[in-house]
Structure formats: C-alpha cells, structure tokens
Write a structure and sequence with these properties.
Elements lengths: L1 E10 L2 E11 L4 E5 L6 H8 L7 E6 L2 E2 L4 H6 L1 E4 L11 H11 L4 H14 L15 H13 L5 E5 L7 H14 L4 E6 L2 H7 L2 E6 L2 E7 L10 E9 L2 H10 L5 E6 L3 E9 L5 H11 L3 E7 L3 H10 L10 H16 L1
Parallel strand pairs: 3-8, 3-9, 6-7, 7-8
Antiparallel strand pairs: 1-2, 1-4, 4-5, 9-10, 11-13, 11-14, 12-13
Helix pairs in contact: 3-4, 4-5
Bound molecules: adenosine-5'-diphosphate (ADP) and magnesium ion.
Length: 334
C-alpha cells in the first residue's frame, strides 16, 4: 500500500505538486490522469525516490521513502517518462544489469529475467541490441526492467506515448495482465486510455487532486445537468418568449437564421423539459424539426473538471484550435 501525505514540490516559486494526499490500496490498477504539466511525472518521481519532495511524506508498505529508501524502493518497479537508454546492450544484458542494480540474488537472476521476458513478450528479441528495437518493443523492455525484482507495485509514466494504435492495445493488455499480480499505477493525459484499463482514476490539475473515484462514478462529480437541443421552424422573436416562459430552465441559448431557430435549454438533471417544449411549440403553432438530448461524454467531463480551476498553462479554446488547423491548412495548401 502506498500512502502519500501532503506532498509538495516547489521549483523556485512554481508549485508543481500542491499538497497532494492519497492512498493506493493493494491489487489495484490506478490511473493518474491530468493534462500536461499537471504534476504527474513529478509525483511519480517522488514516490519512486528519484527526486525529493519539498514537504510531505511517502510511505510504501509502511517504509518511508526517505528514512528507509532501500526497503521502500524494493517494493516498486518504475518505468519513467524518459527511461534511461542503454541502446548498445542486448535486451538480456540490460535486464541482467538491472537485476544486479536491484540486488537480486545471483541464483534468482536467470529465472527472474526469463520470467520478465516471458511476461512482456520479449523472449524473441532477448538477444537483440536495444537500439535495433521498435519503440513498442523498447517500451516492453522498459516494463520488463520494472518487474525485475518482482516488486509489489509497478509505476508506469505515460507508457503508451509515441506508440502506434496496435502497440497501444498490446501495452494495455500487458498492463491488465500485470495487474493480476501487482498493484499498477499508470499516468496518462488521455482519458480514454485510463478508462480502458483502470479501476480507479485520480485526476490531478495544477498539482492538486481534483477527483479520485472509479471511472463509472466520474459523472457524479459534476453539476449534473440535462441539456436539450431543439430546432424549431420560426423566427427568434416568436420562439424566444415561449422558451422564456418554461419553468425550471437554468440556461437558454438561441440561434436563428430567419427560418429556423436552434435552441439549447439546460435544466437540473432530474428535470426533463422535452414535453413542455413540445406542448409550448404546438400551442404556438411552431413546428419542431429536431429534438435531442445533449449528453456529455467522459472527455467533456475531464475537460470540465480540469478547466474549472485556474490553469497556469492555458488550454486552447475550440476556436483557437480551429484557427490553428486552418492556418496549418493554409500552409500545406501553398
Ligand atoms: P506532467 O507529468 O503532469 O506533465 P510534470 O510533473 O512534468 O507534469 O510537471 C509539473 C510542473 O512542474 C510543470 O509546470 C513543469 O513545467 C514543472 N517542472 C517539472 N520539472 C521541472 C524542473 N526540473 N524544473 C522546473 N520546473 C519543472
Ligand atoms: Mg509527465
């Protein structure tokens, strides 16, 4: 079990980790989710003893990472975001080197290397130089070195970055397989990645914990709302008063083109406005052409949760993204 209490990391005046507290029980696959710059790598580097914290404590199975670093580190296997590369070694030589570093007893080295190769599907490339491997295989070797020493906890920092879709699926399957025997913590800035493999998700933003819950429970952390989009044949000055007369409307927006008006109304989650809208339009003799409930997917939820706080690294708005891609399109047109 990992216990992190009031963790703080300051770089000069910049708070990269801001009083982070959480525990990870055994046997879980936990996703550490947050936009770039949220503080994921910093936190993982502290938990694994790579860098020191400014304040706070980390204990692994009851061993404090500063007071008993050897004991604490024995329980953790780590694949950093930028793994050290020993490209002139073969995979097997490299794993032997790691086993030595981790002080695996001599007798156990061979069987442990064999098992790590088997578990990560790297038996066939064991004798190849690391520099000749694809990125997907290098990542597998990175995971193999993390499981040498048979640590209870495996921490993987953005393990699928830079991989192609097939490799991503393979690494995900591998992580699920590892979770049968180890506690696995992985970080990602992509929600779908986390929801595909994790039991629990911790969303962090600006070094702070925003939400910690199961993937299914995420929507409950939002101000639950119902939104309905309606296209009505008519002009804005006819439609607007009808919508304003509806009860329980929290937000209303209208956009007319002279012939049709597109209306979006938002209410509390327990209120369904569709029948009221239908009867109001029918009474006024205004035909409804379309009506649909606007549902929010997990991606929207993630964006809302991480945007609701002031972000230091501003995310581009949809408009800006569009402008940018239009600019790029211009360039490629030339
Ligand atoms: P993430 O892994 O979530 O993308 P990081 O933990 O790498 O985020 O970074 C968190 C914040 O700390 C960022 O604002 C980053 O610029 C800053 N940071 C990270 N490492 C350093 C460093 N060595 N020196 C100064 N600032 C750093
Ligand atoms: Mg990172």
């Amino acid at each position: 079990m990992i216990e992190v209490k009031d963790l703080v990391k300051k770089y000069d005046n910049h708070l990269a980790v801001d009083h982070l507290t959480f525990t990870v029980p055994r046997g879980q696959i936990l996703g550490f989710l947050g936009p770039n710059g949220a503080g994921k790598s910093t936190t993982m580097n502290i938990i694994t003893g790579y860098i020191s914290a400014t304040e706070g404590s980390v204990s692994i199975n009851g061993h404090d990472i500063y007071e008993e670093p050897e004991e604490a580190k024995k329980s953790i296997g780590y694949l950093p975001e930028q793994p050290p590369v020993y490209t002139d070694m073969t995979v097997k030589e490299y794993l032997g080197f790691v086993a030595e570093l981790k002080r695996v007893p001599k007798k156990e080295r061979e069987p442990q290397i064999a098992s790590a190769l088997a578990k990560t599907g790297t038996v066939d490339v064991a004798k190849r130089l690391i520099k000749h491997l694809s990125k997907g295989y290098r990542q597998r070797v990175g995971i193999a070195q993390a499981i040498i020493g048979n640590p209870e906890v495996i921490i993987l920092d953005e393990p699928t970055v830079g991989l192609d879709p097939v490799q991503i699926i393979e690494i995900r399957d591998l992580m699920k397989e590892l979770a049968k025997e180890h506690t696995v913590i992985l970080s990602s800035h992509i929600l779908s990645e986390i929801s595909a493999v994790c039991d629990t998700v911790m969303i962090i933003n600006n070094g702070r914990l925003v939400v910690s819950d199961t993937v299914e429970n995420l929507p409950q952390h939002l101000n639950a709302q119902n939104s309905c989009r309606v296209v009505i044949k008519g002009t804005e000055d006819l439609v607007k008063p009808l919508m304003e007369e509806l009860e329980d409307v929290k937000e209303l927006s209208l956009e007319g083109d002279g012939e049709f008006v597109t209306v979006t109304v938002t209410s509390d989650s327990q209120v369904d406005l569709r029948e009221d809208i239908f009867f109001a339009c029918a009474r006024a003799g205004l035909p409804i052409y379309e009506m649909s409930n606007v549902t929010r997917n997990l991606e929207d939820i993630f964006l809302e949760l991480t945007r609701s706080e002031e972000t230091t690294e501003e995310l581009p708005t949809e408009g800006e993204i569009k402008e940018e891609s239009e600019e790029n399109a211009d360039v490629s047109d030339l």
